[in-house]
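PROTOCOL LOG
Step 1. Enter all chains and additional molecules of the complex.
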Amino acid sequence: MDSALILEWVIKSAILIFVLLTGFAYLTLFERRALARIQVRIGPNRAGPFGLLQPVADGLKLIFKEELTPAEADKVLFTLAPVVTVVPALILAAVIPWGRDVTLFGRQVSLSVADLNVGVLYIMAVSSIAVYGIVLAGWSSNNKYALLGGLRSSAQMISYELALGLAFVPAILLADSMRMVDIVEAQHPWWFVVIQPVGTAIFLIATLAEVNRAPFDMPEAEQELTAGYHTEYSGMKFALFFMAEYAKMIVISSIAATLFFGGYLGPGVDRYPWLGPLYLFIKIVILLFGMIWLRATFPRIRYDRLMAFGWKVLLPLALAVTFITALGIVLEMLWLIPVLSLAAGLFTVAMVHRALRRKAYARA
Amino acid sequence: MTNLVLFLVLAVVAVVTALGMLLSRNAVYAALFLVLNFATVAVFYILLEAPFIAMTQVTVYAGAIMVLFLFVIMLLGAERLPGTEPLPWQRPLAIFLALVLAVEAGYLLFARRAAGGMFASAAPDFGSPQAIGTMLFNRYLLPFEVTSVLLLVAMVGAIVLTKKEKGGRE
Amino acid sequence: MVDAWLYIGLFLLVGIVIPGMAIMISWLVAPRKPNPVKQSPYECGVETVGESRVQFKAQYYIFTLVFLVFDVETVFLFPWAVALGKLPLFVALEGIVFILILVAGLVYAWRKGMLEWV
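Step 2. Run joint prediction.
Step 3. Record the structure below.
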């Protein structure tokens, strides 16, 4: 381990953190502008050209805000909870490969920063830790709404974590490896979204629930829980929760892009490895826009329906998809995988439709 | 050298978190110290070049079992631990067992050192997911299947127990 | 291999320092004028009744218990998924048997009404 390597690491970490932080800041602006467009409004456009300075203004405002701590709150955990929430969101980003190796200043620079041989398991482990920040925030606030919001949120996260974990399995099966780079390279002619469309859909739905985004934004159900686990938070600590949510959106979109949408692959990447990060960036932006679009379109689902959907629809479907993928690989008939899994997906949709119709009639 | 320094730092963290777990009067803090302790153990596994076990440790113990613990603590409202010990015979028994463990560990350490060579050095792909997968499904196939039955029994047991409680309340 | 982990350790450190610094900075510059009304819990203007850390329903606990079982199962499926291509056919079937046994568990929980959020 030489000093040049350490310097390389420091530079890479700095770039990655910088990208995540500015990405978080501008994602908030992007979301507000996009939501405004969808709702036929204009959105923030006063601070700077096109409102580009809005995130800076928001950040400055939040720094100078007074932070309130409820009198009977557990002070230590109340301060620790936002930090614990932010850390998993940031360190998840370390395993995402941005591209193939490039030569820079006569030095072979690897654009996959931490290329772990258990990359996918690392993602699973870190996202399973993410529950703590929310539970602690809810518990330490000494507020009933916060406690209920935190508990609901954590129960929701662990329920959808199962579907998320099982959605990783088809990607591992198809790539024969848990290494992120291997998974990207295995998608060379066909992205995994083509081979396993239903697995991809499960992954995307489960990630929405993992980051507590609409229509699964139960913990923040304003009408019933004021603001859920971060009711009592203000100033910078509130900003940290906000940051965790948006950083997690970015990271989880990049994981989805890497596992199912070919990661840094795209036309011309073999010739010009520098295109890799660009392709990854484009894919991430498209996925993020999808998340925002969903928020603008769907109402929040009721909590019992949300749990039922996770346990009775997503989990069995994820098990079926794993089964089908393994079957297709063992029989060496890859075309079987999309056909059978789409059939399973359609069957599930039909069953849900029937159950909902029956319920609607029963109520009338 | 780096490994030795890392090990020493981590060993101190592990001991401190374990003590913190034992000495906290608040059950939520005790549970959180235990989470930190599990995380430290996971780092030990990484130092031993067993990243798969490390990640499993974090996912299952820190990510699932301790969440369950926290839920139970919060569910019962049992944050404040009672000052008195409910089981008076527990302390002498624990001290005795700890002594047995210490003697055993010391004996192994010295006996093995006398015999020369504590550990065989690991093969290059030792602990890689591929190696674990192949081992698990060749040599340890039966334990693996038994595990699945065990998990099934655990789930059925949990369901039966909670069902009964519900019936009693109604 | 350990190198990559060292990098993650470094990143973890940075990830802790950044939010820590943010809290420090705002602690230094933000005003602090606490008073009892500000410090009371926000419950829509109504004064808090009783203990805030209420006991909640056992359902949370049951779901976590079932989650634990399936979490362990998922972790076991990962090495199976990695090694599937290099293993003989009957081993692949063993993995499928493993999945089916746990599906039986899920069906049992479902039939017993454990997955209902009442």
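Step 4. Note key features.
Residues 3-363 of chain A form one domain.
The longest strand of chain A covers residues 102-104.
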